[in-house]
């Protein structure tokens, strides 16, 4: 920032996000605590303060970040809507697919732990044992890919669930990816690498 070293760190929980910004050479520290979930809010406040500190005028950071956020939300909503449109279209098709119990079992990731994929009342369900809020129904998308819709809608983090097959065509692994590009990075779905646990 203006040739000065800057260190920042963010954090958050559902319903709140925070940012700490330090410019050590100037002995300047900015801490923004918010009771909402948009990172644009703390960025706008932090940058408006820095502008004032450096004598920079003419830019309304709140408007700048607000406009950018609205555009990003509109783009993300379109992406998400297209995914669910595909899901709805697939539900109307009568093509042959593997039965839902084909994918059932326990899948294990070294970080998240065990996830149960089970069939119940003609639905395919996802439950993360270490993180019970990650529970939801799996909807067919394409190929061996489903979309999990979390029961807790406050998560705002529906995700693709992609099953990997072995050379005999049986599920042996599972990967995930957030549906919306605005899904909070802390979910780290893309870093998960599940292996199906052999039945005893």
Q: Could you walk me through the main structural features you see in this protein, from its secondary elements to its overall organization?
A:
The protein has helices at 39-53, 61-92; strands spanning 7-13, 16-23, 28-34, 105-109, 113-120, 123-128, 135-142, 145-150, 159-165, 171-178, 194-196. The chain has 200 residues and is of the alpha+beta class. The protein folds into two domains: 7-59; 95-196, Lipocalin (Beta Barrel), CATH 2.40.128.600. Helix 1 packs antiparallel against helix 2 (61-92). The protein is elongated, with a radius of gyration of 22 Å. The protein starts with 6 loop residues before the first strand and ends with a strand.
CATH fold name of the largest domain: Lipocalin
**Total helix count?**
2
Q: Numbering strands along the chain, what is their spatial order in the largest sheet?
A: 4-5-6-7-8-9-10-11
User: Major beta sheet, specifics?
Assistant: 8 strands, antiparallel, barrel
Q: Kindly provide the radius of gyration, computed on alpha-carbon positions and rounded to a whole number of angstroms.
A: 22 Å
Query: For the residues shown, what is the average pLDDT?
Result: 92
Could you give a short description of this structure?
The chain is an alpha+beta fold.
Helix-strand layout with pairing:
Blueprint: E1 7-13, E2 16-23, E3 28-34, H1 39-53, H2 61-92, E4 105-109, E5 113-120, E6 123-128, E7 135-142, E8 145-150, E9 159-165, E10 171-178, E11 194-196
Antiparallel strand pairs: 1-2, 2-3, 4-5, 4-11, 5-6, 6-7, 7-8, 8-9, 9-10, 10-11
Helix pairs in contact: 1-2
